[in-house]
Amino acid sequence: MVQTSKYTFYSFVPKNLFEQFHRIAYIYFLLVLCLNQIPQLAVFGRFASLFPLVFVLFVTALKDGYEDWRRHRSDKKENNRSALAFVNGRFEPKRWKDVMVGEVLKVQADETIPCDIVLLRTSDPNGVAYVQTMNLDGESNLKTRYAHFETAAHIEAEDRRLEQSSISGKVICEKPNRNIYGFTGYAEIDGHQLPLGPTNIVLRGCELKNTTWAIGVAVYTGQETKVMLNSAGAQSKRSLLEQKMNRETLWMSLFLLVCCFISGIGMGLWLKRHEHELDVIPYYGQKYENQYKYYGKVGESIFAFLSSLISFQIMIPISLYISIELVRLVQSYFMIRDVEMYHIETNNRLQCRALNINEDLGQVKYVFSDKTGTLTENKMEFKCASIFGENYEDGGDLEDCIASPDRKLVTEFSCGFKWKPKVRVKLDPSLVRVLQDSKNILQRTPVHNYLLTLAACNTVVPTKVELSSSGNLEMEVAIAADEGVSLIEYQGESPDEQALVSVAASYGYTLIERTSNHIVLNVLGENILFDVLGTHEFDSNRKCMSVVLRCPDGKIKVLVKGADSAMLRKVSLSAGSMHFGEEHKDRVFSSTQMHLEMYSTKGLRTLVVGFRELNATELVDWQQLYAKANASVSGRATLLHEAAQYIEKDLALLGVTGIEDKLQVGVPETISGLKDAGIKVWMLTGDKQETAISIGFSCDLLTHGMKQVIINASDKQQCRDMIKAAKEAYVLDKRGRNQTSHSGAGASHSAIDEQRNGPKSVNEPSLTSRLMDFLQKIKHSCSSVATSSIESVTSQQGHILALIIDGNALVHALENDLEEELFDLATACHVVICCRVAPLQKAGIVSLVKRKSKDMTLAIGDGANDVSMIQMADVGVGISGQEGRQAVLASDFAMGQFRFLRRLLLVHGHLNYRRLSYMVLYNFYRNSVFVLLLFWYTLYTAFSTSPAITQWSLVLYSIIYTSVPTIVVGIMDRNLSPQTLLKYPGLYMSGQQNESYNRPLFWLTMLDTLWQSLVLFYVPYFTFIHSTVDIWSVGSLWTIAVVVLVNFHLAMDVEHYTWIIHLAIWGSIVATYICIIVLDLLTDDESLVHYGTIFHIAATATYWLDILFIIVLALLPRFIVKVVKLKFKPADVDIAREEEILKH
């Protein structure tokens, strides 16, 4: 049974409460709540004191419970699905949750696999099954899985019996693990031991396609299936703003303790001063046998301290946590519904998988990007080929051959085949001539082996595409016996393989049938069967793939293709192994290397192709190694590697393939915009250095004016020397480098100011008069602004620096004693490109920047090799691409294409950061001004914590009276329109510079809070000090005054009014009046003392004049500071906002 839910009916309450109380603030409020239950310390009513914490816990539990209920509902639906299990001699329906390990299951076409099963038999005579793994990794192409011939024959024999009672056998396999690409085991059938590997197992969640039925034995079920072992929720991360908020919360807690300490000491000193009057002072009289429970000066001081702690508890805004979560949720909804980030081709919207780091999108300084599938489309197009030292790339599309003199040759060649690939590729007439010239053996033989390798050395599945009677295209498995001209479409695990097989088919080497034991190729119109003796699939260590074929003439050929770094070491230059004369070997090898470098310079993905023939002795030796490896359960990967190494040597060099992976739409514009926004973009790729550099120029990451610092080192000392030499040669401005690398905010801001206006002076003209000059300069010099703001160092010739380093050098550079040097050099450069890097090296680079700097990092990728990098970064973004969903599942945000990153950061990131930053500051202000009002009151009441404000108003202040406007403004307000933010990317730097939330701004806000609290208290105090108005009436005035004041404060800061914001702000004041009227009409014992007070005091003109005077006097300093700042020292966003106002 599968269970993805977190709670059960009995564990929900304790487990959820345990999780919620991980927040320190909740523990603080629980402590305060417990103290308030002590009669001597009770400041609020016992029930009223429970409300805030219980409300917050209840709302959070309600949200968590609803999410878990949805998981329970999904689990129930999944567990109760039906499967066919072999019971009592026949297949009967059985619920998925009841399927046990060892049971034999039958799956029909288009059904989902209920658990991890080892195939025993399929409807295909050769034991082939085709599965779609979209639910597992997001890939829609078909994968091939095989049942052993022996198991299929065994079950078939059982079928022939009149009374089939059992299917017997044994499967020995590894323990359940998370590796979805690996499986090791063996089956024992009729005394035979059959090796089992990844091609024999079908995982839970896959769908059976193009296969009528398949029978398998369950090896892993329920929670032990590989997909369930890999299932995990979104990463739990804390935003930088939340970390800073915790720091300010600590400061506020210390300030709260100081206030409480003053109240306690003050109480003791007051009692000491009036010690001889205590017998006659009300509530202290000792002559009445201590009926008022007087505990002495020390005891009363302690009680005063604890009572103050309870009374001033809202200094720590508990409602802020709920408010922030709600605002983040709605922000995520707006991001998801943004049609500008909707990818029509794949029907993908932005996904927000982590709701607690929305604001981090507005402070990103470093973007680490994968190349293939992230910057490029991962849709491969074959461009050119190097065969036998000859370059073939002068091709044209078949439809474009009309004007070509070779049109007749190419058309007759391509139209003469029975099988045609669905994907049309360019044909080179000169290569067609070689294939048609049977006399030119010297060139034709290498071309034959080259195309044979492209067609056979892969794992693609050929499928036949036909038009059904209903007019729809239908796809079914292709077999060589099919009659008539057929259209072939190839389903493969890699887009590279699909492209290579398609180009081989276009030249007449068409793969038309694949089984576990043989393949059939249509070679220039003739079907030829090749026996497959074994396959060594690609792995990251060997960096190549090989297949061993027995040809019709009895020859044994090993066909190999792989990365040049691995393949060129396996090539033999002896004339015998090269299969051509001594006079050609040097020319072929040097020409191939030249073509390889040329293709890489063009930005093409390259593979080297080679082959060799095995003699009888070598074949027997390899078969023994291969059989031993397949029969092993432990250490199989190592044994297979040894078997592959035995035959992947002394290869004859056939040539090189050049495949173009086109850039995605909008990538150059996006990278340019990110650079203008002050963001450094680093490209981390596994491709060749030349390819990475070429793509860097194509996507506007590199420019021809940059000085490239290239570090390729094979040993540690060489790496150390090269980094040291680069620093000495190019890193001249140490002060500038340190300033940008470690405190880039100030450098960026000053650069913008200088670019925009030159030196500032207080006698400058008005903001409006300077606006047009700024707009013209920032519009025409955006790139130079970003360059001057980001760039930290230049070379001796004044070039901007770009660091290019390979994976071999990074092995040493990321070690502890060299990483500091690497960090200094890398952060001093404008651009960094890391090529030939492994997945863990990607994560290591991100980790290095995170540890050595305080800047925000973002990693974006689309494949499983990007997962570690995505999880390591502060913000991880996954691309829903051609390489599956592993990156999406590990990410915080997921999108359809790289170009959407520009809008995500520059628009949503900027707005989210400003909104939440202001929301945090405002909540601290809102609660502090209320607490300070209560504190000033205690100074005039013998430090008693009995407030003039009603208990319910104290509780409802931060929950109902003032919470809604905060949330609405946090959701709806914006300082600039998306058009302006995209037009001027440099405005994004305000987030990097922490303009909206920083320590000086926090303390300035607290200073303003102090002033406003003094105005709040003393205006009514001096107004009514000699009147007969009671304290409860003044308390009603204070309640209304503080609510009106904080709402006017909020209204002054709103930058984009909507009717919803108006309704929230002014409606909050109306709601407060309604609540006070209702509370003043209550007649219970606790409420009777302030019965009807609002009606008496509100009937006087002094009441309304006091409120007006409080608003004007309290907000006047803030208003003056805002006007002066806009007049004499406006920020970039202020000037851009002025432009918007003038346009409207």
TrEMBL record:
It comes from Ceratopteris richardii (Triangle waterfern). The chain crosses the membrane at residues 21-38, 44-62, 250-271, 302-327, 924-943, 949-972, 1001-1019, 1031-1052, 1059-1082, 1094-1116. It is a multi-pass membrane protein. The keyword Transmembrane helix applies. Keywords: ATP-binding, Magnesium, Membrane, Metal-binding, Nucleotide-binding, Translocase, Transmembrane, Transmembrane helix. It catalyses: ATP + H2O + phospholipidSide 1 = ADP + phosphate + phospholipidSide 2. Its EC number is 7.6.2.1. The keyword Membrane applies. This is Phospholipid-transporting ATPase. Mg(2+) binds at residues 370, 372, 862, 866. NCBIfam families: ATPase-Plipid (TIGR01652), ATPase_P-type (TIGR01494). It is an enzyme of class 7 (translocase). Residues 736-764 are annotated as: Disordered. Its cofactor is Mg(2+). Residues 741-750 have a biased composition (Low complexity). One of its GO terms (molecular function) is ATPase-coupled intramembrane lipid transporter activity.
